[in-house]
Amino acid sequence: MNIVVLVKQIPDPAGPQELNADHTLKREGKLILDESDSYGVEIALQLRESAGGGDVTLVSMAPNGETSGLRTALAMGADDAILVGDDALPGAAALTTAKVLAGAIGRKQYDLVIGAVESSDGYVGVVPAMIAELLGLPSLTFAKKIDIDGSVIRIERQTEAGYDEVEGALPALVSVTAGVVEPRYPSFKGIMAAKKKPLEQVTVADLGVSVPGFNGNEEVTSVEDAPARAAGEKIEDDGTAFERIVAFLDEQKVL
Amino acid sequence: MDFTVPDEVSDVCDAIAKFIDREVRPLEEEHHTELVTEGITPHLYEVAKGVMAKSVEAGFYGLGMPTDIGGGGLGELGMCFVRETVAGSGAFLTMLMMGDLPFGPNRMLYELGSEHQREKYLLPLIAGEKTTCIALTEPDAGSDLSGVRTRAERADGGWILNGQKLFITNAPYCDFAQVFATTEGGHTIFLVDKDTPGFVVGPIQRSMGDDHLQSEVYFDDCFVPDENVVGEAGHAFVYAARFLSNERIAISSTAIGMADWLVNAMVEQAQTRFQFGNPIGHNQAIQWMVADSKMELYAARSMCYDTAWHADEGDNVMDRVAMTKLFATEMVGRVADRAVQVFGGMGYMRDCPVERFYRLARVMRIAGGTSEIQRLMIARLAGLGS
Questions:
Q1: CB A115 within 8 A of CB A36
Q2: Is B121 part of a structural domain of the chain?
Q3: Is the CB of residue A97 less than 8 Å from the CB of residue A127?
Q4: Which of B10, B12, B60 to mutate to test the interface with A (most CBs of A within 10 A)?
Q5: Which of A143, B2, B26, B207 would you call most buried, defined as having the most Cβ atoms within 10 angstroms of its Cβ?
Q6: Could you tell me the pTM of the whole model?
């Protein structure tokens, strides 16, 4: 079974973050594997193991040719990677990103494309569905469990109330939720082996993808700090505090 | 020389840091009260063994051992970065995680071990199936190893051991011991299974650092077969000097990781602790403690990398190792002392990790060769003394 995993490399969330003049996130220096994508990589590796063979290919887009995050996923056990790097890519909007990634995915023979529900830095959450549309694939989203049976894929789709069982035909694209599996650690042997794995670096022109303008029709017009948390209300208990608390919770519609 | 951290080492350090965050810190939180009030109990040792098992599974165990037996093949310099990462995490339950001396596999068994010893002892060690200890110190033999009184006499097909050891780290929990004993014409190293008749482990000797990993061991007409002699009889101290002295680089990099953690803790405390309306870091007295600590940490780190790099080049590093071990372990003692001072009353409390580091740092000037022995070696290698 051949699986493509969409992998985003992001600035370390534990470090300080800066914005560019156009309000997009600065992506300079080392970029790490988005934690959200480590689940997709793990699921792909498990599906490959269950199928008894095949390739797990990573597809990524990074503005500065950075490969640290990809190396981590290769060290986990993926077989190869395609990295789209292009000076014009920084700040690319969701649709542009989807077109570029779809173009890169098209370079491989695949049965399944796996992506995270959303990235940990952008939180846009539409790229997987856009890619499915561009590639003409069934889109199965919010998967917390995946089963493959021949040419049929079945997922448990996470919902607020529980999950739905959804079925589709392969090839398909599936977005997976975080926390559904325990991503393996890249071992030192895996890290050394990853150095020898194929990592193809291509430009947008190499993909033959036509994008109207890298920023598409999206623009971040302003960025504001999150409002500071307002001071809470202190209630001195005169024996009726519980009534005030119940009334407050009722007002918040949490009862 | 180039101390740039190679990508693969940087990547494995990142993976180890993540492993500690995900696998170890929740355990430290879960067992916080037991850790703080009792230290490493037999129960917490089992918890640490669970961490070890996961480390083996994740491929982090025995990173410094050769690849042909399942190790990572990292050199001394690479292992410095790894050990700094582990020690710099501040997590106590990482103690078995890397398989460092004395718990896990070592170069002596790799280089000198027979096929039988490799199969029965070394491979289970690197697989995390067994742990070991090094039984060397005795009541009258600490720094002066020639004082070893444990004696091995020839017997049919093997040797009979009699004697006493003490402060033997991991003796209460190990599967076998690497025992130094006096034999005719010198000293010899024996591998002694824990369940061998006549091999008795005494009660745990509780320690200042709360690790509680030490105990006495006794040999009472304990029979050890010939096949359990390491290398050749009579060469124990040559082997110890050749294979075990690099433990001092490991202790040094651990001291550096601890000092790094302490300096970060001091800086954070100096920035966030307010007295007289200002962060205490506004006071020059505090600034200087931090500045001196950073300077000494930088010096120790530079020495350690240089020593490790030369060791990887195959150079004779006896004097460098002694100087590095001496400076790094004394440095972490001074840094821990300043950290307690910066934390004030809180730094004196068991609930504050700084307090634990202060106690843990103390043994580093003793274990693996005291500061005085390091000075003695440095002076002798400079051509002074006998």
A1: no
A2: no
A3: yes
A4: B12
A5: A143
A6: 0.86
